[in-house]
Amino acid sequence: MGEITENPRKPDIKPELTGKEKRLKNLRPPFKKGEKPPKGVGRPTGSEDFKTKMLKAVDYIAKNSNSTPDQVWDKFYASGLTNGMKGNFPFFKEVVERLHGVVTQKTDITSNGEKINTDNKAQIDLVINNLLQKDDGQQGLPSGTNTDIKQ
User: Fold this and answer.
1) Which of 14, 41, 60, 73 reaches 20 to 30 Å from 2, CA-CA?
2) Residue 61: how many CB atoms within 10 A of its CB?
3) What is the pLDDT of residues 48-100, one digit of tens each?
4) Does residue 68 lie in a domain region?
5) Residue 94 belongs to a domain
6) How far apart are CA 132 and CA 138, in angstroms?
7) Of 70, 96, 100, 68, which is closest to residue 84 (Cα–Cα)?
């Protein structure tokens, strides 16, 4: 008998890549210092962001209406507030957030609004006190040990 060869009619079966493996395979290595990105990556040269376009639009309106840019902005804010009071607020809100940034929102998900005690020594003393409690209900720490928790 001769050597065993693969069947030429049967193609090699390659295992399918999972979603994560496909994503990792498509990643490009980070740019080295001083290296320029390949052409076509990122925002095109000379393109303008929303703020620049909005400022140009305000200048254009000011020129064509014989007013100053500040007067145009005042009209815009007055119009936004008037429409907001009528219930139509999304457009004005979107523009203001793009120009001035989103208003900071504080979210408390840990303490239901109560102050969280950050005094580590007091917490450690309390844990030690609870661990060393005697069966008769007396505290196991020596007298004079500070176990008060500051509220």
Assistant:
1) 14
2) 16
3) 888 899 999 999 999 999 999 999 999 988 988 888 888 888 888 888 888 88
4) yes
5) yes
6) 9
7) 96
The confidence band for 151, taking pLDDT boundaries of 50, 70 and 90, is very low
Residues 151/117, Cβ–Cβ less than 8 Å: yes
Compute CA 67 distance to the chain's CA centroid, rounded to the nearest angstrom: 39
The pTM score is 0.43
User: Which residue matches tokens 């004079």?
Assistant: 144
**Which two three-digit tokens encode residue 46?**
């000379």
- One-letter amino acid at 126 equals L
Residue 62 lies in a domain: yes
Q: What's the CA gap between 57 and 24, in Å, rounded?
A: 42
List the Cα angle 126/129/130 in 5-degree steps. Answer: 90
Residue with tokens 């050597």: 3
